[in-house]
Amino acid sequence: MEPTLAGIVGIVAMLALFTTRMPVAYVMTLVGFAGFALLISPQGALSMLSRTYYDTFSSYALSTIPLFILMGQLAFNSGISKRLYECAYQFLGHIRGGLAMATVAACTAFGAVCGSSPATAATMAMVAIPEMKRYGYADSLAAGSVAAGGSMGMIMPPSVVLIIYGVLTGQSIGALFVAGILPAIVLTLLFIVAIAIQCRLRPNLGRGGERGATAARLRSLLGLADTLAIFLLVIGGMFFGLFTPTEAASIGVLGIIALSLLKRQLSWKAFADSLYETLRTSAMVLFLVAGASVFGKFLAVTRIPFDVAGWVAAMDLPNVLIMALILGIYMIGGCFMDALALVMLTIPVFYPVVQHLGYDPIWFGVIIVLVTQIGVITPPVGINAYVVYGMCQKIAPTVTLEAVFKGITPFLLAIIAGIALMMLFPQIVLLLPGLMY
Amino acid sequence: MTEHVPNPGRPSARLFSGLEGGMKVVAAACLMGMALVTGLDVAGRAAMNTPLFGSEEITSILAALVVGFSLPYAHSQGSHIGVEVVYQRLGRRARRMLDFCTRLVSAALFGEIARQMWAYGLDKRAVGQVSMNLGLPTYHVLFALAGCFAVFALFQLRDALRALRRQG
Amino acid sequence: GTRLTYSCFFPPTHVQSQLAEAWCKEVEKRTNGEVAVDFFPGGTLTKAEEAYDGVVQGMSDLGFSVLGYSRGRFPVMAAVDLPLGYRSGWAATQVANQVYAHFKPAEFNDVQPMYFHAHGPGLLHTAKKEVRKLEDLQGLKLRATGNSGQLVKALGGTPVAMSMPDSYQAIQKGVVNGGMYPVETNKGWNMAEVVHFMTETQPVAYTTTFFVVMNKARWESLSPKARQAIAAINVEWAEKHAQAWDASDVVGMEFFKSKGGKVLPLNNGEAERWIKATEPLLAQYVQEAKAKGLDGQAVLNFARQALRKAQQ
Ligand code: NA
Ligand code: NA
Q1: ipTM score here?
Q2: A366 C-alpha vs ligand 1 centroid, how far in Å?
Q3: Which residues form the Tripartite ATP-independent periplasmic transporters DctQ component domain (chain B) (predicted)?
Q4: What is the domain partition of chain A in residue ranges?
Q5: CB–CB of B28 and A279 under 8 A?
Q6: Mean pLDDT by 10 residues, chain A (437 residues)
Q7: Quick one: which of A105, A81, A107 has its CA closest to A92?
């Protein structure tokens, strides 16, 4: 079969198989395997399958995932996240959707130290969704804000995609990181606006409560002092470069265990539950990553990403249209493929074009990250959406996959608005690096 | 997804729940091991300027074992999510047949991965390949993972048969 | 005609990847289209660590990666990566191809090697501390993996193993104090932005050997004429890769200096001390080869002699 045709058939087959309720990760594995076998060789495909699973499971970069999930679990089971949200409620509870806003801001803070989207989504889902549910927030808002907020793991520097982009194009990684900060903050604000608007239109999504008294606010804040110390250690340690994300997560796990033992807040059963729940969700997340990776290898050998990039590069259109087309391709491509693989395959073709059109390379790098992160929250391969849904099965069983995707929609619009804003005002991206480099 | 509470009296049910429970404990131990090894590394680096060389390799190996040994547990907890929209609208008979087919395919898929991992481990052992920094014989990890995937496939097979026997 | 797939882990904009891609085009041209090659850069088909195994298993027909990623698998060729005192990538490439041609080691029986090449001298780079003598390395945490990690340890430093993308941040933030790597990396991974000193440690410079290999069955399925054409291209390309490594080192050095980097010489009489410190590593190589029934001393002697000739 013609590789391009095989690619299209593969995508259709994947969509069709999704309807059988076969787990999403299995379907991506199966279709990716079959396609690879067809285009390369059956033995090559069998080897690819086992190697990709082994690679994913034993990847040091991904080992942050179980550790951060465990940290979230321990925070949940020892009551830390409950107290955290009680405190947030004291301060923000009177605003409609206030807890969802706090969650998005927390995601951005977490993203400032963690380079992975699914890890951010999984950790924050554990901490935030049960609490938002407790305060009567709608499934869609609770799940949507976490799934979308999780994309901040990649958008807010440090970001793996920015590193790879810097290496591919020879741009300064430091400048790219600095350039990514302001857009991430703008996007966080847009997310908050999106929450405010939808809660104004439909107050049921997240009702406002009583305004907390000053004394109660201070008391709730004081009660959190020790917990905040741990979070400051974890986040500050990563920020000041004392440790890598995996190390920070381990410190967080050990710190929370020590603290809860001291304060006798963690029973043996709660500890064991935290471990087992972490196993369950880690397996779920890593299967999704492995499945997406198998499918990505198949898409690579169809050469569709190369071909599409080549066509666009050869088109004779006005600059803005070409740029829009390129961004459109990343948006659609991100729906079927992991952001990193997509960037790796297409940047070499697009980058010279973008430079030729006179766009700033640093600006383009940051925009690419934003655009590919749309992919992690949209079907069919929206890893964050599936991760959040998977987490909810235990912690908030009423949440359906439709609710997750529905909840994501306003945030999707916010990202698109953000990209438009940054196309109109490139200064948002270029201001900080201009000052520093 | 867990529509069955297994009858603990039957030997096969005891085997399955024993496997699941035992592997779960190994996985949990590996998970705590990851946190401890990494914590030791950081503490060593900060306090005595003696980081644990190659701790990344140990962490990665433990991470692989964490996921591998939790496969049966994650499976019977129904962790791997699928899309329910269309499925929910089907009749009971159609659902049963669909479940039978998808689980059989899954069993074959993961059984094959188990076989390939085993072969991969044999290859690595035969050529004498070890890990880059610590020189650890990582083929042991592959053998362990092969075993985990084999058990995982077995669970899929059991569920396929269950779907077939299911009434209605 | 035949269509082959070629997996390379270097990102597509890297000159080594571009050379590999040029190899593909040259093969198509000189076999008159009998053999066409689809090129997959950036590890999109197989990752660096699995590229060799990927060729054996047929995940790709051709693979380009690092021998050192499969530690223990290439006991003869591993001699080339030792800290023998390389002064250029060209010399290291000569040594690699000569060792292979002379010993025809059985470790490559499961593939058809195309050619080998190797990067320029792996040197010591530090962020804040100036290193001029062996004692200065005490207590320094240096990013180094596998082979270079053993070198750092032998010299008295503390090796920290981490991936290249992590290294930039780790050095920037002071988690490690520097690294052992070839000069080109200063530009290739922007390391010059975070390191400020380079010590002229050429007397104990190691290298990293890269391989390009083809699936054996695919090679044997090609016509004798095509195989002959490819063999001729391989000889030329080994030379091109070697020259590219040295040219990258020049660029890396310029970039390093443009960022304010300072090159430090070893103090008087230090070179001998550093060389002496690496001797246990060479002895260990011979020992490990012996355990696999190979005459490691003969390989080592041959490699040293080839290097001496290449650097004359
Ligand atoms: Na981040
Ligand atoms: Na998507």
Answers
A1: 0.89
A2: 12
A3: 34-166
A4: 62-285+304-436
A5: yes
A6: 88 88 90 95 94 91 81 79 76 87 86 72 87 91 94 80 76 81 94 95 84 80 74 70 76 87 84 90 84 86 82 82 88 76 75 82 92 84 85 86 92 94 93 77
A7: A105
